[in-house]
Specification:
Elements (H helix, E strand, L loop, with lengths): L9 H10 L6 H11 L4 E4 L6 H15 L12 E4 L3 H14 L7 E4 L5 H10 L3 E4 L1 H9 L10 E4 L2 H6 L3 H10 L6 E6 L4 H10 L4 E4 L10 E7 L5 H10 L6 E4 L3 H13 L4 E4 L5 H13 L4 E4 L1 H4 L9 E4 L6 H8 L9 E7 L4 H11 L4 E2 L1 E2 L56 H8 L2 E2 L4
Parallel strand pairs: 1-6, 1-7, 2-4, 2-5, 3-4, 5-6, 8-13, 8-14, 9-11, 9-12, 10-11, 12-13
Antiparallel strand pairs: 15-16
Helix pairs in contact: 2-3, 3-4, 6-8, 14-15
Bound molecules: adenosine monophosphate.
Length: 446
Amino acid sequence: MTFESLGLAPALLRALAEQGYATPTPIQAAAIPLVADGHDLLAGAQTGTGKTAAFALPLLQKLQATPHLHDRPRTPRALILTPTRELAAQVHDNLRAYGKHLRVRTTAVFGGVGMGGQVQALRRGADIIVATPGRLIDHMDRHNVDLSCIDTLVLDEADRMLDMGFAPALRKILGVLPKASRQTLLFSATFAPEVKALAAQFMHDPREVQMAQPNAVAVGVEHCVHPVDADRKRELLLHVLAADSRRQTLVFARTKHGSDKLCRYLDQHGFRVAAIHGNKSQSQRTRALAEFKAGKVTVLVATDIAARGLDIAQLPAVVNYDLPMVAQDYVHRIGRTGRAGAEGLALSLVSREEQGLLRDIRRLLKQDLAIESVEGFEPSWSLRLDAPAPSAHKSGRNHGNAPRNGTKPGKSSHARRPHVQRKQDEHAAGNRRRRKWRGNADSRKA
Ligand code: AMP
């Protein structure tokens, strides 16, 4: 399969060659012909699969091929909605890169920056608007934007938008878009009932493509767990980061405050580090991400929402300093490593209180996790992954009401079960690479 065989225009092929893309990814090969044929599309694909180009390429081709209405030049014809500012900025960048030899104009509108520049850009006109729902509604309410010519709508990371409470905003936006000839493309990592309901309401006879099994993570990713006492986590993080201080590492913390504290701590210990979370201004976030991408910053500490959809090519390692409260978020976090066939390491520092969360993650992944304590950081407790029943921490974002932020998980009901330590090391393969990362970790088999 080649991009030529997908029927893409020479100007797009040139841009793809300049990007260094040799062959389409599976989602691109499956989705591009369907979109080019004008179908609505329901695509199950997560970040890292090449999903952006899967909708961006046929969209650019369509806009280039169909001329503007003479009386409405530069009235937007395509709208792409994303859950976060970062993803909107990334999609915008990708569109510009893929469309650099075309006469298609794109603009992005998202919160966290002033309205003025966006108003001017909207007045100048654009073919494609990439937007987060909240900011787009601000512009709609102020009559800054004319959506009456939108004939292609893309809902990117639809599950996340619904998770983040954007359902009313989406309905409001969808309510004003033309219906008759609109093509709607919905991309989502998972198809929870809410996503399906959205699709059923707003899409017309959609074709479906499913790229990864729901909840699957990239094949090349190795999952490793270091059990540790909660009060020694920071030191252990220093230890594992110091094993290769030049390695670009994304570190996840649960809260904004926790991210800042960790960032200061790493900074005091000589790491080039930045934090990215919801309390940072847009310019701070953009700068942190740019510096991380450029290698000026080697450790980026992030919360889940801030990191969603970040496009960081071939990140070798992700560290879960805190486990996510919702097991599904583990999959999202790890989506940033092991991309496009590259190997990746997902390392989790797990305290006693987080055992229930780890069990949920393992249940969701249906995959082995290498459990290894690190010499000098052996925990004062034994990690148990054998507890059979689901705890109060339900896996999957749509099950249960586990909070996304805030309180630590309480002692789960597992604490009362008899202690049986079945396997400390479930997965012995790949030790060589882990050792390189860890320095002197001690891999134990029970
Ligand atoms: P996405 O899933 O859209 O966030 O894309 C993930 C990464 O894959 C991005 O860094 C893209 O630039 C890259 N990418 C997308 N399509 C291809 C392709 N056909 N070949 C190589 N890299 C690609």
